[in-house]
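Sharing a chain and its predicted structure for anyone who wants a worked example. Both blocks are below, sequence first, tokens second.
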Amino acid sequence: MIEINILRKVLLDQDFQINELDIDKTKAITEILKEMKLRNNFMNLCKSAEIKDHAPLRKKEFIIKNIYIKNISLKLTEQRVKHVFIKGVPLSNSFYKNPSDRIYTDADILIDLKDYKKFYKFLDANNLKHSFNYKYLDRIGYTRSALEVIDTEVNLDFHIKITESFKKNDCRLSKYSLKNYTVLDDLPVPSNELLLTICLYNALKKDQLKSGPIYLVDSERIIKKGVNEDYLSTILSDFNLTNFYKETICLIENLKKGVETREQTNFIVGLFKNEGKRSFIPSKRNILTQVMHILDPEPY
């Protein structure tokens, strides 16, 4: 299956050659990849000009984005705002061969809520328009993980927590990430173990596997950099992700060896087909969210 071959090449980081005369195969690949988050990664490996011409976001654009984000981080540090970058930005910046390999649309930045005064001072000093949403955090219906979403050269999503709940704004995963972080290529990021946990949490619990196969590649890249298995095991257990991690590792290893089971093959194809799609049947969580918004609408 084409989806299996695409994902295997990306995981193995192998160049991909296609017969320039094989128009049907080229069309099939570009059709599959056109909305996929791993499209640039595959296209950067591809030797076919016909396929490479379909890559809308190239290396230079991501290099510029990363320079801008590093400048934002520097200014946050100058204001002594504790922060770490999560999700796409650190992965693009430090875990992939080319920055453009890992597509992201927003820069997700987790900040320490204890520094909220200094954070808003940073926003005002840099003329970044905001709504001072901090004043809404105690509202019953306020369930968003992002404190401020600011449209600049790169969309900046400033988060106060990683996991979402209808209770308080407390988040153990966020506390771990702000406490156990390192600096990679000039950006503060959670430890590899926490970054992997966040990746798995978002894929399974937040996105319900609708984010596609990118979480498999992210996980493989993080693990390749090195993780402390004992520490990782403890964190995964805390967030009920142990079994999902084991299944993910098994899937990646089998796929790289070319011994994936039929069940795994069907699962991967499903990831490709369902990326970005919404379920017709809303989850209990989505229903509860909508009810909460009716009773106490978000203030913006």
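Comments welcome. The CA atoms of residues 131 and 300 lie 8 Å apart.
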